Amino acid sequence: MLLKPVILSGGSGSRLWPLSREKNPKQLLKLFNEKTLLQNTVGRISGLEQYFAQISTPLIVGNVDYRFIVENQLKSMQSIAHCILEPVSRNTAPALTVAAFKSIENGLDPVLLVMPADHAISNIEAFEKAVHIAAKKADEGAVVCFGITPHAADIGFGYIKTQKNDQTGIHQLERFVEKPSLEIAKQYVASGEYYWNSGLFVLKASVWLSLIKQANLAIYTACEEAFQLSTKVDAFTILDKPSFEKSEDDSIDYAVMEKLGQGAFSHVPSYVVPFDVDWSDVGGWAAVWEISQQNEQGNVLKGVDPTLVHASKNNLVYSSNKRVVSLLGAENLIVVDTDDALFIADRENLNEMRALVKKIKDHYPALMENGRKVDRPWGTYDSIDKEQNFQVKRIVVNPGEKLSLQMHYHRAEHWIVVRGTGRVTCGENVFLLTENESTYIPMGEVHRLENPGKVPLEIIEVQSGHYLGEDDIVRIEDNYGRCG
């Protein structure tokens, strides 16, 4: 049996605003430890080697905007994966379909372990055993889901009804229900016959393609065309945008899973493996509080001095800022402080988060797209200050990396090195710039900054001009394929 992990990494995670943004969603964030949710998901694969003789290179499917962030995160943990880049978001059913086409391109038909990139699982040993059980059934042509025993009626989850078989540890799937009303959810939980749908699946690539072709031919056809016309660049497959745009926006659950056990899909062998793994889909700030380590007062404090939280309990306080954050007499609050936004909410009222996010997007769209600190393939930049006709940035260039050879029509730049050594191209001149040295880049001059050293290069950049937008960059040469 050949197992191929497929990691779906295309979500935006808007319910974790302001930490999660459209260009830096929750799966790419460090929420619980020193690794991001994506890195933790990739890390789970290594332990499966004890159960499977063959594990293929993982596939990560995500938006093209995340390309370099994903690449850098994989590089930092010395992991290898092939990435399929979506030019537009089309939900999980198209994402799995293109992954299946990629999986069979060399005449193989692996068992796919389909995992969202933004889930948290703490009991890794139980996870590995459950995957092993599921893969055996999937290798026989079955569709296998993983069920979480519900501890409360929750309308945020899909539910799976099963015919339980306590002897084998794997139950036959009877019916799949996506996010019922609260009253129906209470009935499901009381009956003891239902599980929450974990969103993880195991099935053969050919089985998924057969099911999606039968259930939604438009998705199948658009994804097949987008894959056939895709561009291969190193470890990336970039889907053809006009073709992929034709695909309908649909989830795995709605497109296929809800149909299992019914009508034309009643013949499909479908099973549920109970998933006792301390699982969370990290659906919002309440979930982050629930699964994080709490102190004696029930507080979860990230980047906050615990001595400044007094007479307060059951709060989550998350600060990525250098400001001092303090709480007095607070209870059941979510407080998230970032460089450009402060979010405060009652932990019991987070069901209105989507409405708030919509208002923010309508009135302050830039706050939804990016935080103040922005990832680039060569490093990061942080917009420290901005007013009319000037902007100040802190730029960090990773060792061995370089910005594009470029010019600006509307701004000049002053560079001051505060750490490391930079190699500067300015017109016909190429020279080194070390700590406490500076240079001036005139408006319209072709220039480049690179880091030839072994430590990060940090500079302060002061831009001056009548227009300071990021689109005032004319790339002449670029290591990352961003010209044109």
Automatic annotation (TrEMBL):
CDD domains: cupin_PMI_typeII_C (cd02213), GDP-M1P_Guanylyltransferase (cd02509)
EC number in record: 2.7.7.13
InterPro entries on file: GMPP_N (IPR049577), Man1P_GuaTrfase/Man6P_Isoase (IPR006375), Man6P_isomerase-2_C (IPR001538), ManC/GMP-like_b-helix (IPR054566), Mannose-6P_isomerase_type2 (IPR051161), NTP_transferase_dom (IPR005835), Nucleotide-diphossugar_trans (IPR029044), RmlC-like_jellyroll (IPR014710)
Catalytic activity: alpha-D-mannose 1-phosphate + GTP + H(+) = GDP-alpha-D-mannose + diphosphate
Biological pathway: Nucleotide-sugar biosynthesis; GDP-alpha-D-mannose biosynthesis; GDP-alpha-D-mannose from alpha-D-mannose 1-phosphate (GTP route): step 1/1
The keyword Nucleotidyltransferase belongs to this UniProt entry's keyword annotation: yes
Keywords: GTP-binding, Isomerase, Nucleotide-binding, Nucleotidyltransferase, Transferase
EC category: transferase
Segments forming domain MannoseP isomerase/GMP-like beta-helix: 312-359
Keyword GTP-binding: yes
Mannose-6-phosphate isomerase type II C-terminal domain location: 369-478
Domain Nucleotidyl transferase: 4-297
Single Gene Ontology BP annotation: polysaccharide biosynthetic process
Recorded GO MF terms: GTP binding; isomerase activity; mannose-1-phosphate guanylyltransferase (GTP) activity
Pfam families assigned: ManC_GMP_beta-helix, MannoseP_isomer, NTP_transferase
PANTHER family: MANNOSE-1-PHOSPHATE GUANYLYLTRANSFERASE
Homology family: Belongs to the mannose-6-phosphate isomerase type 2 family.
Name the record gives this protein: mannose-1-phosphate guanylyltransferase
